[in-house]
Amino acid sequence: MNKIEAATKALKETGKLGIMAHIVAGYPSLEDSKGIAETLLESVEILEVQIPFSDPIADGPVIAGANAEALEKGVTVNESLEMIGQLAAGTDKPILIMTYFNIIHHYGVQAFCKKAKTLGVQGLIVPDYPFDEDTGNGLLTAAKENDLALIQVMAPTTKPERMKAVAEHGSGFIYCMARVGITGNKTEIGEDTAAYLKQVREQTDLPLAVGFGLSEKAQLEAIKPYADIAVIGSALIRNYQGKSLPEAQDSIRTFLADLS
Q1: Mean pLDDT on 190-203
Q2: Which parts of 59-216 are beta strand (E)?
Q3: What is the DSSP letter of 46?
Q4: Which of 60, 75, 91, 152 is placed for a possible disulfide with 26 were both Cys, Cβ 3.0 to 4.6 Å?
Q5: Is 191 designated active site?
Q6: Burial class (CB in 10 A: 0-12, 13-18, 19+), 218
């Protein structure tokens, strides 16, 4: 059983809604992002670390701004991977890499996946890489060969037949966008969201993670009947941006405690 399976199995057994925290490597600095990640790992179930990229098309202004600032400071892919490896070596919790396919393609698909495995990474989230594009690129195959879950993404606009196909190519868990658009804006969790998540659940036995615009305890309580994991990104970064590392760590602990 890999770390993702172990984490999601434990959540099902306890009935707890897990938290996957999203951070950007190198924001506000490499040292501080590592310290923030270590603080998050005290309480979240999964950590998603984004390699900064110049055109993060799925990300809203908060995460896009964090990407831009990390790049302006000269943070590289290799530096990000080194930090991710240090984090993975220090925890039993799953560490995932979130990135865009341009970075993986430039690095080399097989080389990137081998490196991720060597570092102790458990999976990849690549939102601009639908499984249909695997012919000639081979990321699905390379991820499988290196024991990496390649997390598939669904949206409320995904048709049932497409949901089934996406689910069949999924591993680890399915990432369900709570709404169409980019990350960051607050999402209202209503009947439409519940119906959508129920529809996804009908297509797969994999755990469901829900993200995009989650920031409050009431939202997490609303998705709990339908999901296994809540993804917190922009709200978390807003919580610690502009703070010193000790202030950020204290603020993160309070923020996460308020969600539970």
Answers
A1: 90
A2: 95-98, 123-125, 149-154, 174-177, 208-211
A3: E
A4: 75
A5: no
A6: exposed
Strands 18-24 and 46-50: parallel
Burial class (CB in 10 A: 0-12, 13-18, 19+), 234: buried
Catalytic: which of 31, 32, 38, 48? 48
Fold of 3-254: TIM Barrel (3.20.20)
| Whole-number Å distance between alpha carbons of 33 and 55 | 20
Domain boundaries, the chain: 3-254
Q: How many residues does the chain have?
A: 260
Element (H, E) at 64: helix 61-72
DSSP 8-state assignment for residue 153: E
Q: Is 48 a catalytic residue?
A: yes
Instruction: Enter the tokens of residue 167.
Output: 């689910």
Residue pLDDT, tens place only, 124-170 = 999 999 888 777 789 999 999 999 999 999 989 888 889 989 988 99
Cβ neighbourhood burial of 74 (10 Å; 0-12, 13-18, 19+)? exposed
**148: Cβ contacts below 8 Å, ≥ 6 apart:** 113, 116, 117, 121, 122, 123, 124
Q: Which of 5, 31, 42, 59 is catalytic?
A: 59
